[in-house]
Amino acid sequence: MTIDVRKFCRLAQQRGLVGLTDSFAIASIGVTHISSFLFQKARFLENILENGVVTMECANRFQGLCYEQVVRLHEVMEEVVPIHGRGNFPTMDIKLKDLVQVVREKLRTDGVSVKDVRLNGGAASYIFGTDNVRSYNDLDLIFGVDLSNHNELQKIKNCVLGCLLDFLPDGVNKEKMSSCSLKEAYVQKMVKVCNEHGDRWSLISLSNNKGKNVELKFVDKMKRQFEFSVDSFQIILDSLLTFYEVSAAPMSENFYPTVVAESVYGDFCEAWYHLNKKLISTRNPEEIRGGGLLKYCNLLTRTYTPVENIDIRAMERYMCSRFFIDFSDLNQQRQKLESYLNNHFSGEEELKHDYLMTLYRVVDESTICLMGHERRQTLNLIHQLAYQVLMDQERRAHIKYLEIQQFDQLNSLTIDQVFFHGPFSPNNGNQYFNILPTSSVFQINGSSSCPLCPTYLQCS
């Protein structure tokens, strides 16, 4: 399809997507690069332009980033992410910007057509959110590619592994590095999906010991691209990458690239409102692998609340039913829960127990697809994991106690108050393990002991 540049500029100005900033940009990059610069800006409209008309339904999915959001995006792209190797393989420190540019260029060199590159998931939500802390776990990148030929999947795999070779530290003998050894050392998981629903995509996840994995998705078709409205944002990076390539001038409030984002949920403004008001909304959770159950309980734990116009109980029942269809075996459920805890609560140990108790409540109240003994087995599994979390917390508390005791002895200090945060006990949970009553403040004297501390941990 041929896009009339003048027509595009007029249309984009009407939509507020191209302004004075682009005049500065075009002036700075020179005549030879103007068409390339504008073409990258036009890419996001290629799929919705039809005979020069943009429907409001499609236009509502897109939104241009303001200067502050572009700066946030630039900081994320400049972030150095360690990719940890197994065994004796060295750690690779990679800028996200460099990784995207190298992979995209390598794909095109190898004959794989790349339609666009997008930032997705928690990192994209962070760009539009109000939190100053980077609380996202994974860095999700989506490369739009054509996978109608199955040979393309092998090309993509070889391309990514070849790019990893370029990022190995100086001094490493790269000649002895095979694709197989690089895969074993740096790839956490690889997934290929081609099913009867028309989905065609693959995933290569690069490992990070702190759970901040870099996930490269190569997508031709994906029926369901989001779980909830708050994680439906996809930021199209092509114009930013072009800016990096053709402009030597740094960004400023009067000079920065026009970057466009899409909400695959549908209405961008609605999804943005849900994100900033911490609201939970989704559509057809039975279409999501796992039903979105684990993510839903994660959002509840982080004080998100469901929107008012949905039937919460019905939504939870759909989530539970799909989860137990996809993870019907108890061992599968254990592996999934342990993996989710490790990947999404890294550095947030105190939230793990609250999360598991929230999950327990939802499964207990909304599961209708299991036999009685199957339901009890799953609830018992969740309780066992919660008990393990409490034991881990007690071990860490004991270590801290020993450190504080040593500090007290050196400084002649005495602790006269201990503050406790007691665990939450779901209904009908005592058949698995007992939870003692909680108290907010416990006064310590010589004749009493703390009811919440283990026997080996003295309170004074």
Automatic annotation (TrEMBL):
Q: What class of enzyme is it?
A: transferase
Q: Record's superkingdom?
A: Eukaryota
Q: Where is the signal peptide?
A: none
What EC number(s) does this enzyme carry? 2.7.7.19
Sorted alphabetically, the keyword list is: Transferase
| Keyword presence, Transferase | yes
- Example of a GO MF term: RNA binding
Q: Is Zinc-finger one of the keywords UniProt gives this record? A: no
For this protein, the record's InterPro entries field holds: TET5
Q: Enumerate the Gene Ontology biological process terms.
A: mRNA stabilization
Reaction(s) catalysed (UniProt annotation): RNA(n) + ATP = RNA(n)-3'-adenine ribonucleotide + diphosphate
UniProt xrefs under Pfam families: NTP_transf_7
Q: Which PANTHER family match?
A: POLYNUCLEOTIDE ADENYLYLTRANSFERASE, PRION-LIKE- Q/N-RICH -DOMAIN-BEARING PROTEIN PROTEIN 44
Family affiliation: Belongs to the TENT family.
Protein name, please? polynucleotide adenylyltransferase
